[in-house]
Amino acid sequence: MRPPWFNVRLAFADGARIDVLAVVDDGRIAIEDLRADPPLPLESLAVLADRIEEPLEDACGVTERLPEPPVEAAPSRGSPARRRRPVVVRGSAGRRLAADAYRAAQLEGRDPVLAVMAVTGRSRRKSLRLIAGARDEGYLAPRHNRRRTR
């Protein structure tokens, strides 16, 4: 079995480099982190995705492509189309949602943090904070059982 995380480095003759951290989840490849030196303009991200797509699929062992999601029509003002973000659920309901996604992913043998990230649309760091809050409220078991002293 291949590991779910992959580091990719593109080095160019002029000294520029791009480091990409990718994760494979349910047969899909997602870019978790991207660092470029010098920084990339936004227009270059699409070119980068096209350039690393096939080599990354080969390295990750992805055999079939999933259909592309439909692109929303661009707003009439001429600005580019944007994807909708999931509705942010705050407070106790958000922590309960995170706990449910975490437990479901554990039962299915998937990465629970990635599951919380997918459900909430939050970054890894914020998802970890949300999971910690769910533990504090008792929705999830504590990470470490403390021994009782007599």
Task: Describe the model.
- The chain is of the alpha+beta class.
- It has helices at 43-60, 91-108, 112-120, 124-136; strands at 5-11, 17-25, 28-37.
- Helix 2 packs across helix 3 (112-120), helix 2 (91-108) crosses helix 4 (124-136) and helix 3 packs across helix 4.
- The relative contact order is 0.10.
The succession of helices and strands, N to C, reads: EEEHHHH
**What is the number of helical segments per DSSP (H or I, 4+ residues)?**
4
Compute the separation of the termini in Å. 46 Å
Shape descriptor: elongated
Helix coverage percent: 25-40%
Low-confidence stretches: none
Question: What does the radius of gyration come to?
Answer: 19 Å
- The averaged pLDDT comes out at 76
Number of strands: 3
Task: Report the major sheet.
Answer: 3 strands, antiparallel
Structural class: alpha+beta
What is shown here, in short?
The protein has 150 residues and is α+β, with helices and mostly antiparallel strands. It has helices at 43-60, 91-108, 112-120, 124-136; strands spanning 5-11, 17-25, 28-37. A 3-stranded antiparallel sheet has the order 1-2-3.
Name its key features.
single chain; 150 residues; alpha+beta; three-stranded antiparallel beta sheet; 4 helices; 39% helix
